[in-house]
Write a structure and sequence with these properties.
Distance between the termini: 45 Å
Structural class: alpha+beta
Strand content: 15-25%
Helix content: 25-40%
Oligomer: single chain
Number of strands: 9
Strand order of the largest sheet: 2-9-8-4-5
Number of helices: 5
CATH class of the largest domain: Mainly Beta
Largest sheet: 5 strands, mixed
Shape: rod-shaped
């Protein structure tokens, strides 16, 4: 006997709840992946600011110490997170003035008694909120070369210097890790998608169970066993 279209539709309806739940889960997973790819692919669209000029210039040698360090960037930088550190050839920090931010320019005063090789280590937060950093070597005096190379302090063994260098490399690796705001965006987006998927699954289960399922304390006592007890 031929199967009528109505019977086929009813059969499809009977098997649809499980299919719908699988479809919801798959759709949620696909949406989560798409969101992560969009966030990851979209972040490079915001170009980070970059250093376009400096004084001292990389490798510059002065007869006398310059009055200040001046850094000029391609866009305005944020004052929060700005740091300028100057170290001598032993890696010891030189006392410099607090960095001053004015739009795209950062300045920091230098002492007048500099002599030898030095390195400027700067770090700023660009206008898109991404931290950027770099170094600039310079020298002061007739014997200076403008190339900074760290030497072991006079009162410490070379092993201690190597240990200090390893610590600095670890700090540099930590500073270049994933951006915290980007990671937070991924986590919040994924949690929101999972919550939406859970809500859709619960709604699908309730719909498949029928409008009267689970309502009232005696919902399960209406069968033949219940009437027999009376």
């Amino acid at each position: 006997m031929p199967t009528s279209p109505t019977a086929v539709a009813r059969a499809a309806t009977r098997t649809s709840p499980a299919t719908r739940m699988r479809a919801v889960v798959l759709a949620a997973a696909a949406l989560a992946v798409a969101l992560c790819l969009t966030l990851a692919g979209g972040s490079p669209a915001f170009a980070h600011d970059e250093l376009i000029a400096s004084s001292p210039e990389p490798g510059e040698v002065f007869d006398a110490a310059p009055a200040e360090v001046t850094l000029t960037f391609s866009g305005d930088v944020l004052e929060a997170g700005t740091a300028v550190v100057v170290v001598d050839h032993h890696g010891d920090e030189v006392e410099v003035g607090a960095p001053a931010v004015s739009g795209s320019e950062v300045t920091s005063g230098l002492p007048a008694d500099l002599s030898g090789e030095y390195q400027v280590r700067w770090r700023v937060v660009s206008s898109d909120g991404h931290p950027i950093e770099g170094t600039i070597d310079f020298g002061v005096g007739a014997d200076a070369t403008g190339t900074w190379t760290e030497e072991a302090p006079h009162d410490e063994a070379p092993a201690d210097s190597e240990s200090a260098g390893g610590s600095e490399h670890a700090e540099d690796a930590a500073a270049t890790g994933p951006d915290g705001w980007t990671i937070a965006g991924f986590v919040v987006g994924a949690l929101g998608i999972l919550a939406l998927a859970a809500a859709l699954i619960v709604a699908a289960r309730r719909k498949s169970a029928g409008p009267g399922a689970g309502s009232g304390p005696g919902a399960g006592s209406g069968g033949p066993g219940g009437s027999a007890d009376q």
